[in-house]
Structure formats: structure tokens, C-alpha cells
Amino acid sequence: MIYLELIWAFFKIGAFTFGGGYAMIPLIQSEVTSRGWMSTEEILNFIAVSESTPGPFAINMATYIGTETAGFWGAVCATGAVVLPSFIIILIIAKIYSVFRTNKYVAGCMSGIKPVVIGLIATALYTTAEAVFFPDGLTLGIFTGAAFWFSLVILALDILLVTRKIHPITIIAISAALGIAFGYADKLWI
Q1: In terms of domains, do 91 and 25 share one?
Q2: Digit-coded pLDDT (tens) for 99-114
Q3: Cβ contacts of residue 26 below 8 Å, gap of 6+?
Q4: Across residues 146-162, what is the average pLDDT?
Q5: 128 lies in the same domain as 170
Q6: How far is CA 121 from CA 5, 154, 157, in A?
Q7: How far apart are CA 84 and CA 10, in angstroms?
Q8: Which residues of 50-66 are buried (b: 16+ CB within 10 A; e: fewer)?
Q9: Residue 4 confidence (pLDDT) above 60
Q10: Pair 10, 28 in one domain
């Protein structure tokens, strides 16, 4: 039964997400946490891992959640289900591309979907930032904790490096090293 639940959940995620992996985060969080497969914190931790590993974000997430939930076959079910809608849609579009290319209704539909994608990505950014910077809610106490300031320093440095056009792999490596160093320093801070 768990395999069918994984297939259904990840088929919905794959079918109703436009805009790539980041736009999937709210739907993944909703599906996975409502079923009790993982907590929001576990999902956020794996988002960080998924971003630093090769491969498409959605596939990494589906494979990981499937494995954690139901082992190898869970990973196969979740991964297959998350890519199946895209595969089907691309096959259909490839078959009738000439009709879609000039259709004003399809163009209008795509114009309406684009702002939604930006909204979904913004929601993912907000929920991730909230979990990183305000894990216990927005209180004055967060400003006295080292974790908040360490995360803020890493964020500021990452923004600086991105604006300097530093390669993303270098930024990830620097951020990981700083996270390890700050994690060790946080233990000393207490």
C-alpha cells in the first residue's frame, strides 16, 4: 500500500508543478508532511543536500523520500512517479507541437502560469528562510543565538559571491566549510 501512496503523491507533485524543482517545494512539503513521512525540518535538511548533489532536484527529492519511506522499491516508485507526468506531457506536446506553437489559448495559459511559478518559488524561499533564520518563531531571542548570526553571515557572503559571478560549486563548497566551522564555533559559543 505504501508504494501506491508514494506513486500517487509523487505523480501529483510531478503533474501539478510548473517551474522546476524550487516551485515543487511547497507541494512536496504538503504531501510529505501531511502523510507523516518526514518533518519539515527533515525536508529542509535534504533540500540542502539535494542542492549540493548532482541531478535534478525533483528526482533527488523523490528518490530520497521514497528510500526513507519504503526502501529501494519506494525510491523506484517515487522517482518514476515524479517524472512520469512530464514524460507524458512532453510526448503529447512533441506529437502535436505545430498546433500548440501558434495557439492563442495555449499562449494565454502559459502567460497565466508564469506568475504562479514565481509565486511558488517565492513561497519556497520564504518557508526555507523562515526555517533557517526563525526555527522557533520570530522572537527577540533569535538575535542572541549564534546560529542566526552565522546563517546571516553565510547568506551575506553567498550573495556577495553570486554578484561577483563566482562559480556555484565554489559557493557551495565555501558555504559547507563555513557551516562546519560555524557549527563547531556554535558549540564553543554556548
Answers
A1: yes
A2: 776 788 877 887 888 8
A3: 120, 123, 124, 127
A4: 83
A5: no
A6: 26, 21, 22
A7: 9
A8: beeeeeebbbbbbbbbb
A9: yes
A10: yes
Which of 86, 110, 133 terminates a domain? The answer is 133
pTM for this model (two decimals): 0.57
- Looking at the fold, whether 92 and 56 belong to one and the same domain comes out as yes
C-alpha to C-alpha distance for 46 and 163, rounded to whole angstroms: 26
Give residues with Cβ within 8 angstroms of 164, minimum separation 6: none
- Shared-domain flag, residues 39 and 102: yes
Residues 81 and 12 in one domain: yes
Instruction: Give the residue numbers spanning the domain of 168.
Output: 136-190
Q: Are residues 129 and 140 in the same domain?
A: no
Residues 41-95 pLDDT 10s? 888 888 877 777 777 888 888 998 999 999 999 999 999 999 999 889 888 878 8
> What gap in Å lies between CA 39 and CA 37, rounded to an integer?
7
Tell me how many domains the chain contains.
2
- Residue 187: pLDDT band (50, 70, 90) is low
Q: Which residue has the cell 523506484?
A: 76
Single residue among 133, 148, 165 that ends a domain in this structure: 133
Instruction: Annotate 98-108 with b (16+ C-beta within 10 A) or e (fewer).
Output: eeeeeeeeeee
